[in-house]
Amino acid sequence: LSIRKDSAFIAHIGDSRIYQIRRKEGIIYRSADHSLVEEMLRKGKIREEEAHTHPQRNIITRCLYVTEKRNRYSEATIDIIHDIRPGDIFMLCTDGVSDELTDKNIEAILTADSNLENKASVLSCQCANSSDNNTAILIEINEAAKGTNANVDRIYTAETTISDSRIELMMKNVLSAIFGTSSKNLASSSNTKKNI
User: Fold this and answer.
1) Which pLDDT score is estimated for 109?
2) SS (H, E, C) the chain
3) Residues 6+ apart with CB under 8 A from 10
4) What is the pLDDT of residue 60?
5) Rounded to the nearest 5°, which phi and psi values hold at 60?
6) List of the chain residues with pLDDT < 70
7) Are residues 97 and 129 in contact, defined by beta-carbon separation less than 8 angstroms?
8) Could you tell me the pTM of the whole model?
9) Nearest one of 23, 88, 25, 34 to 61, comparing CA atoms
């Protein structure tokens, strides 16, 4: 996810997801998984309610694969979002989060009248019983005007196993490079990370 001016450039591969959530509208963008179950859904072979419990829900059709043979690389799906507004929240999450929560649950949590830190804490609690890696990064937009860079207002993580200091440093370095934002504008909430 790279946010510039009034657009977001999204590239993803596998079954980790990117969501864009807007208050009063809910989820307005969700990346499509590269998975067997997602393909079955698109083809109408299963219903949405069956996808969460399908025995083959963890079979992915694309993944990052490092090899010298470029013909074996999987291609990422690339999307560009031109509708970004102040207050929008982007959530990047692993399947341990998206498998545990329905879209309605995610909408309810991320459109609630609370700050981003509380939303990260609620996500963390709701995914406490997940059997998979359950990491989510929440990014809130505070400015999205033409001719200016969209600023990242706050960033919080509901995270599992990486140490607080390591994730904070990693986020500051990566996001500073992507967004061209000084590290003082990036906030990592070490108190919202829970070992779950």
Assistant:
1) 94
2) CEEECCEEEEEECCCCEEEEEECCCEEEEECCCCEHHHHHHHCCCCCHHHHCCCCCCCCECCCCCCCCCHHHCCCCEEEEECCCCCCCEEEEECHHHHCCCCHHHHHHHHCCCCCHHHHHHHHHHHCCCCCCCCCEEEEEECCCCCCCCCCEEEEEEECCCCCHHHHHHHHHHHHHHHHCCCHHHCCCCHHHCCCC
3) 1, 18, 31, 78, 79, 80, 81
4) 85
5) -100, 150
6) 66-67, 72, 143-196
7) no
8) 0.70
9) 34
pLDDT digits (tens, 9 = 90+) for 19-62: 999 999 999 999 988 888 888 988 999 888 788 778 888 888 88
**Total length of the chain:** 196
Rounded to whole angstroms, the Cα distance separating 148 from 70 reads 37
Could you tell me the two tokens for 60? 């992915």
The whole-number pLDDT of residue 95 equals 83
How confident is the model at residue 29, as a pLDDT?
A: 94
